[in-house]
Amino acid sequence: MIVRPADIEKDQAAILEGAWDFASRLDHAEFLPARSDAFEAGVMRVIGLDCVEVTVAEHDGAIVGGLGVAYTPYLWNPVLTHADELFWWTAATAPTTTALRLIRTVLDRARKKAPGQVIGTFKMLTSSPPKIAGVYERLGLRKTETAFMGVI
Q1: Is the pTM of this model over 0.90?
Q2: What value, to the nearest 5°, has the Cα angle with vertex 151 and ends 91 and 68?
Q3: Which helix (H) or strand (E) covers residue 10, if one does?
Q4: Mean pLDDT of all residues in the chain?
Q5: Over the stretch 89-118, which tens digit does the pLDDT of each residue have?
Q6: Distance between CA atoms of 139 and 80, rounded to whole angstroms?
Q7: 2-138 belongs to which CATH class?
Q8: What is the DSSP string of 11-77?
Q9: How far is Cα 46 from Cα 52, in angstroms, rounded to an integer?
């Protein structure tokens, strides 16, 4: 398996398919556009932002996972960089190490951007696999909040 920065033009179809797969498993998918041109346009708008990097996992010539991160100044202390996970998914056919390899690759790249100056935010959604909390903790991250979301 190869974990590499995405080539948005070349990998676009696989990223869109992965985004749809991710969205279809969310507990709160009703906040996203239905699978349509609007959904695809939204994904492309987000991954096209200058502050967003997408990393993909490729296995046997197919994209089997992806992780998108936005790098912005940290809101509460702008001398720090905020690496904010936007999405990540792995295909059902992906090797069992895919998620961990994606996360480790992104964390390594974030550390190289500004050593000791990056705040990483990775999320565990209500629809995430329960073991992801343990993975994040083993990588040195800690639980800091629970978020509530709804149309208001």
Answers
A1: no
A2: 30
A3: helix 8-24
A4: 87
A5: 899 889 999 989 999 999 999 888 877 788
A6: 20
A7: alpha beta
A8: HHHHHHHHHHHHHHT-TTGGGSPPTTHHHHHHHHHHHTSTTEEEEEEEETTEEEEEEEEEEEE-TT-
A9: 7
